[in-house]
Design goal:
The complex is a heterodimer. By secondary structure, chain A is an all-alpha fold. Chain A is built from twelve helices and two strands; from the N terminus they run H-E-E-H-H-H-H-H-H-H-H-H-H-H. Classes of the chains: A mainly alpha, B alpha/beta.
Chain lengths: ~300, ~475
């Protein structure tokens, strides 16, 4: 009897303890995560300028307008150029360096790890401004270097061209690759060295070791990295675009969904239309994430 | 010991950061609370409705009076001075200033909630007079403005260089206070050095451009490609007016979103000027990637001879201007041989909130502002021309301001109305013009895009 009571109060204590962790977080999540999400969806059904006192309910008209907006396809294209460009760039570089820093006994690998991670600490704003100087057509580092090598003045406007969106890839990769390198290093270090030793004795080349041991056993890290890239790019490419090409480059050449949302909501006085673009971003991120997750679902290889 | 020390240091620095962040928040909060709704929205009880629109000293003003003004490149010295004078004139009035570089964003919630300040100076990022009129936030002062006099007993409308823009046909909502103009800028010292002469018309501009190109030291014309409204304001708009035989009515047609205005002959001719400059290779190739500071500093470093810009450029670049640089200003470069200059203005306006709690004080303040003395003090304190007619020659205004004001007062210059079109159309025009300067599109495509975009907005506004 007494024992049961004690057990009950202990369970209650435990529940209160758990609740005290969950409740505040849940509350914050609801206020700062869920409420704005639904408010955004709600606003996308109105014709609200962002500054007026009147809201006109117009149903799905904003989405119909989106269908006829020539800029929207461009922004989606640009977003996916960034997503896939970044996935390829990030994964090639981070797998290469992670393997190099763990599997080959390079002197001072700790030093390199720090070096690669430094750009991650910098704010994207700083990165953008730095790279604007690199790309500056008349006084920039890149064009000066090309001019010096070729001996002719080279004044190509890297950020002022139809395809400038590709010029945004190097800075975005440079700014974030440190994180995935660290992730991959952690993944590779968790693989028991006995596997490699056994492979070595069997005479497997480094390439075979990479293909048959490193890649399958660090697949979880690769998957995490790719999803992280997709989600941060679709929701955050706005920053690098705005910092480096301001209003979306030449004739929307670098406009992405996020920056176009901003232009509509805060510049054109079409806050609701901006919200509708936000809904589009939400849907596309969701589809892309799910699709990639399905695509990359390999059989989990467990160590026994 | 050392661990304890480290721990204390860590926590100390965390605390320090927190305090800093919080105090920063607190600081801005304080400013915010300054601009929070007045505790007692007492309307002026004793003041009669000033339909008579007489000189403001006659009326005794009481109650609260809130003024919102943006503080940017022009500073706030002038505002402090005139508000001080106004307060002395009306000691019973409780004047509250809501001001700062972020004031437009800070006050936005109050405009949305319907408890705006009484008087607003509309300028700076996040402000747009046309949008405020569309959102029905500003008081319609059409009838009052017709007879309103300033403190000196002169008709208010007689004091203005640029008349109020009609955001809705036949209606006055806001009065321009700042008047400056776009134009083409060059370095007088450099031109003297090289023996070049500032062009008087498009023909001489092209000839000089060829010379500059042949000289091989710099490109002819650099512009702010990231914000193409610089080239629209400095080059295209004056060209349109000049090609319309200096008849400024075309700007009104543009502003009222008239169908077919972009495909009219004057616009075609103006676009052709850009095409000619492009085909001669006058545009600096780097321009499309440059923002205003980039393009301006490269122009100051003589990487290019001309730049389209606004009169603010002198004070904006004051810290980066090399010694001996002498700012020269031409209102326009696209006029035909023997033609006039076209000055394309930019204005910032003042207005009274539709839901003002003390509209009488706001009207009186408006009348108080527009005197010649205040026009002069604006030029001196804000280092830029104002929209108030005043003779600046004897003042301490900067040289460029005086030079510009000489142009405005000259018979050989036509002052056109400002092009004010919805922000969305501004952006479409920016994109199209930049694409045209790069040769990505033809003038016909430019016209086509503009007509389409205008049609889209027109159909929406007429809904």
């Amino acid at each position: 009897m007494n024992n049961a009571k004690r057990a009950g109060s202990a369970r209650m204590k435990r529940n209160v303890f758990i609740l005290s962790f969950i409740l505040p977080t849940l509350l914050l999540y609801l206020v700062f995560g869920i409420y704005p999400l639904f408010k955004g969806i709600y606003l996308s059904l109105f014709d609200w300028s962002g500054g007026s006192e009147t809201y006109n309910f117009i149903g799905l008209d904003n989405f119909k307008e989106m269908m006829n907006d020539d800029v929207i396809p461009k922004t989606i294209r640009n977003d996916y150029i960034l997503v896939f460009g970044k996935i390829i760039g990030f994964m090639l570089i981070s797998v290469f360096f992670a393997v190099a820093l763990t599997r080959f006994n390079i002197k001072g690998s700790g030093f390199y790890r720090t070096i690669f991670f430094i750009p991650n600490v910098l704010s994207v704003v700083v990165v953008g401004v730095l790279w604007r100087y690199v790309y500056n057509p008349n006084v920039g580092f890149l064009n000066s270097a090309i001019s010096a090598i070729t001996g002719k003045t080279y004044d190509f406007a890297w950020l002022g061209d139809k395809w400038s969106i590709f010029a945004l890839l190097p800075p975005s990769i440079w700014a974030g690759v440190g994180f995935t390198i660290i992730l991959m290093i952690a993944g590779i270090l968790a693989i028991p060295s006995s596997l490699y030793e056994a492979a070595e004795i069997d005479g497997a080349s480094q390439w075979r070791q990479f293909r048959l041991i490193t890649l399958p056993l660090s697949w979880e890290q690769i998957k995490t990295s790719v999803l992280w890239i997709v989600m941060t790019t679709l929701s955050g490419s706005f920053v690098i675009v705005t910092i480096m090409t301001f209003e979306g480059g030449v004739d929307n050449a670098t406009q992405v969904m996020g920056s176009y949302l901003y232009m509509n909501a805060f510049k054109f006085g079409k806050f609701s239309y901006g919200s509708a673009i936000g809904v589009l971003i939400l849907i596309l991120s969701f589809i892309t994430t799910v699709a990639l997750q399905k695509l990359m679902n390999r059989e989990n290889i467990e160590l026994t | 010991m050392s661990r304890l020390f480290r721990k204390t240091m860590t926590w100390g620095s965390v605390l320090l950061m927190l305090t800093l962040v919080l105090s920063a928040c607190g600081g801005s909060k304080e400013k915010g609370s300054e601009s929070s709704p007045a505790a007692s929205p007492k309307a002026s009880e004793s003041a009669k409705p000033s339909e008579s629109a007489s000189a403001p000293e006659d009326v005794k003003l009481t109650g609260d009076f809130e003024i919102q003004y943006f503080v940017g490149g022009y500073g706030d010295a002038w505002w402090k001075e005139v508000i001080g004078e106004f307060q002395q004139l009306h000691p019973d009035l409780k004047i509250k200033e809501s001001a700062g570089p972020k004031i437009n964003d800070q006050m936005k919630p109050r405009w949305i909630q319907g408890s705006p300040p009484d008087f607003v100076y509309i300028d700076g990022a996040g402000s747009n007079t046309r949008q405020m009129v569309t959102d029905d936030q500003l008081l319609d002062i059409t009838d009052w403005f017709k007879t309103a006099q300033n403190s000196d007993g002169k008709l208010l409308s007689d004091m203005l260089i640029a008349q109020p823009e009609e955001y809705q046909a036949g209606k006055v909502h806001a009065v321009p206070l700042v008047f400056g103009s776009w134009g083409t800028f060059y370095d007088k010292a450099l031109f003297k050095d090289k023996g070049w002469e500032a062009p008087k018309d498009f023909e001489s501009f092209l000839a000089l451009g060829d010379k500059i190109k042949a000289d091989g030291q710099m490109s002819v014309y650099i512009h702010t490609g990231v914000y193409p409204y610089y080239i629209n304001g400095g080059l295209l708009d004056p060209a349109i007016v000049a090609m319309n035989g200096y008849d400024t009515s075309i700007v009104k047609k543009i502003n009222s979103l008239e169908a077919g205005v972009w495909s009219s002959e004057p616009v075609k001719k103006a676009l052709d000027k850009i095409v000619q400059m492009r085909d001669k290779g006058f545009f600096d190739k780097g321009s499309p990637a440059l923002n205003h500071t980039d393009s301006q500093s490269q122009w100051l470093q003589h990487k290019a001879a001309f730049i389209p810009n606004g009169l603010w450029v002198e004070s904006e670049m004051a810290n980066d201007t090399p010694a001996g640089f002498d700012f020269g200003f031409l209102p326009s470069i696209t006029q035909d041989n023997g033609g006039k200059y076209v000055a394309n203005p930019y204005v910032a306006t003042v207005a009274i909130a539709k839901k003002a709690k003390n509209p009488d004080a706001a009207k009186a303040f408006l009348q108080f502002l527009y005197t010649e003395a205040h026009g002069k003090s604006w030029a001196e304190l804000s280092k830029a021309p104002s929209n108030i007619k005043a003779d600046l020659e004897a003042t301490n205004a900067p040289a460029l301001t005086k030079e510009a004001s000489r142009f405005y007062n000259s018979d050989s210059t036509v002052v056109s109305p400002e092009v004010v079109i919805p922000e969305e159309l501004v952006t479409e025009r920016n994109n199209a013009t930049l694409a045209l300067t790069k040769g990505d599109i033809t003038p016909e495509e430019w016209i086509d895009r503009m007509e389409k975009a205008t049609e889209k907005i027109r159909s929406k506004e007429n809904k």
